[in-house]
Design brief:
- It is a single chain.
- The chain is an alpha/beta fold and 516 residues long.
- The chain is 34% helix and 21% strand.
- The strands form five sheets. It has a nine-stranded mixed sheet with strand order 2-1-3-4-11-10-9-6-7, sandwiched between helices. It has a five-stranded parallel sheet with strand order 14-13-12-15-16, with helices on both faces.
- Helix 5 crosses helix 6, helix 5 crosses helix 11 and helix 8 packs antiparallel against helix 9.
- The longest helix is centred in the middle third of the chain and has 29 residues.
- The structure holds xanthosine-5'-monophosphate.
- The site of xanthosine-5'-monophosphate (XMP) has 11 residues, from loops.
- It holds the Pfam family GMP_synt_C.
- Catalyzes the synthesis of GMP from XMP.
Length: 516
């Protein structure tokens, strides 16, 4: 299934929803030609929404030949309007904008797309222009009080369109609509799942690597853990993993990698204990950007040294290491341009930035996958839940969760408070609701408190629980008061030096998720 990207953030969401319907999807730019699409031999095409108006100068266009390929196509929002205009329908600025939840009336009995959906439903809209006249040969399937043509279809030609956004959760019947298009209208089977991804990737890795040696840096996070496990499944002990303990990890993380992960995968692991080196390099530094730079620099240094040692060892055996595993995900590929012509939003660098003259060939078994799919594959491979279900944790670790200078004592204090927060949130069954919950030590702030018999002058701990889909935007999670009370009691009683717990109630934007 191909998703044609007309800009904004919609295409990735559509691609994810299509995969949730067990159909493999890829994103392509709107500049793609009909011949290029035909060469990919898709089973269906979705045209995404986008921020433009079809009448704007330079508005993203579509090769009209794409609608003549005989492949089923569904247009969504802007994609719906592009389709209407290309086929001779009429799109106009009616002055009636619809943003947010909108009531729509469905009149589509017998339609495979909408025929079995409620005739009155609420959907998510975001448009200024409207289709006022469907192209010849099309049935109008839905309307709103201000949009006469809110959905249409031409079943004979396999062409469908909706003005609303079925891919967002605010359209309650949206996923059902997408699945109707995929499975019923286009007849695509629901047969894509983690099991066959593993089999495909194992075969692809074996074909790429042969009998060559492979190296991989583990961060403790889910992406590198799953990437390495897949490679290990494919080539066994031809793979060696390096794990750098920089001392900025959370409680238990090193053990999770060294014991739980190794026990469940059998990978060969080399741990580098660089805790003193990092603390030394961070001494006296409070500026967040400087801390990040130092941590990044030390990380690369340490990793390269460990790598050089392994390379020397392998070369002595007459069998050099030629491959490097990277846990690059599909959103990174899309946002970096992906070779498919999609806009270059940002360039991603894994493992702290790769040198220009990389001496390795990259092995990237997760390049086609979204995060939730990587987790599903990790579970299928039997990885421990503490790693597969782990919430995002920044590369610079606790180093950017101490506002002020990073010292060993402060790290110990923060590790303790963070462990309490994680344990209580998990015990309260809140993990699924929370994207991540940074716990921050305001080491440069002190306030007066009274603990036991005496006056204290301690540091505050900040709780930053956020809910998010992709970390680009976020809202603060409304945690139950009794859970907050338990966390606050435990931290102020059990963590020496902390006499106050505060809750961050800022969305992103304007606040970022991390404090530094
Ligand atoms: P912000 O704070 O920018 O964070 O809202 C967005 C997401 O990125 C994570 N983050 C980082 N991850 N290296 C990383 O690997 C970093 O330097 C870094 N800074 C922020 C953050 O935890 C959140 O998930």
């Amino acid at each position: 299934m191909l998703v044609v990207d007309f800009g904004a953030q919609y295409a990735q969401l559509i691609a994810r929803r299509v995969r949730e319907a067990s159909v493999y999807s890829e994103i392509v730019p709107h500049s793609i030609s009909a011949a290029e699409i035909a060469a990919k031999n898709p089973v269906g095409i979705v045209l995404s929404g986008g921020p433009s108006s079809v009448y704007e100068e330079g508005a993203p266009a579509l090769d009209p030949g794409i609608l003549e390929l005989g492949v089923p196509v569904m247009g969504i929002c802007y994609g719906f309007q592009v389709m209407a205009k290309a086929l001779g329908g009429e799109v106009a600025k009616t002055g009636a904008r619809e943003y947010g939840s909108t009531d729509v009336a469905i009149d589509a009995s017998g339609s495979s797309l909408l025929g079995e959906q409620p005739t009155a439903q609420t959907v998510w809209m975001s448009h200024g222009d409207s289709v006022v006249q469907a192209p010849d040969g099309f049935d109008v399937l839905a309307s709103t009080s201000s949009t006469p043509v809110a959905a249409f279809s031409n079943t004979d030609r396999g062409l469908y369109g909706v003005q609303w956004h079925p891919e967002v959760k605010h359209s309650p019947y949206g996923q059902d609509l997408l699945e109707n298009f995929l499975h019923r209208a286009a007849g695509i089977p629901a047969d894509w799942n983690p099991g066959n991804v593993i089999a495909d990737q194992v075969a692809a890795i074996r074909a790429q690597v042969g009998s060559g040696k492979v190296i991989c840096g583990l961060s403790g996070g889910v992406d590198s853990a799953v990437a390495a496990a897949l490679v290990h499944e494919a080539v066994g002990d031809q793979l060696v993993c390096i794990f750098v303990d920089h001392g900025l990890l959370r409680e238990g993380e090193r053990r999770q990698v060294e014991e739980d992960y190794v026990a469940s995968t059998g990978v060969r692991l080399v741990t580098v204990d660089a805790r003193e080196q990092f603390l030394g390099a961070l001494a006296g530094v409070s500026d967040p950007e400087q801390k990040r730079k130092i941590i990044g620099r030390e990380f690369i240094r340490t990793f390269e040294q460990a790598q050089a040692d392994l390379i020397a060892e392998a070369a002595a055996d007459g069998d050099p290491i030629r491959y490097l595993v990277q846990g690059t995900l599909y959103p990174d590929v899309v946002e970096s341009g992906g070779g498919s012509g999609t806009a270059n939003i940002k360039s991603h660098h894994n493992v702290g930035g790769l040198p220009e003259d990389l001496q390795f060939e990259l092995v990237e078994p997760l390049r086609a996958l979204f995060k939730d799919e990587v987790r599903a594959i990790g579970r299928e491979l039997g990885l421990p839940e503490v790693i597969v279900g782990r919430q995002p944790f920044p590369g610079p670790g606790l180093g950017i969760r101490i506002v002020g200078e990073v010292t060993f004592e402060r790290l110990e204090l923060l590790r303790h408070a963070d462990a309490i927060v994680r344990a209580e949130l998990t015990a309260a069954g809140l993990d699924a609701e929370i994207w991540q919950c940074p716990v921050v030590l305001l080491a440069d702030v002190r306030s007066v408190g009274v603990q036991g018999d005496g006056r204290t002058y301690g540091h505050p701990i900040v709780l930053r629980p956020v809910s998010s889909e992709d970390a680009m935007t976020a809202d603060w999670t409304r945690l139950p008061y009794d859970v907050l009370a338990r966390i606050s009691n435990r931290i102020t009683n059990e963590v020496t030096g902390v006499n106050r717990v505060v809750l961050d109630v800022t969305s992103k934007p304007p606040g970022t998720i991390e404090w530094e």
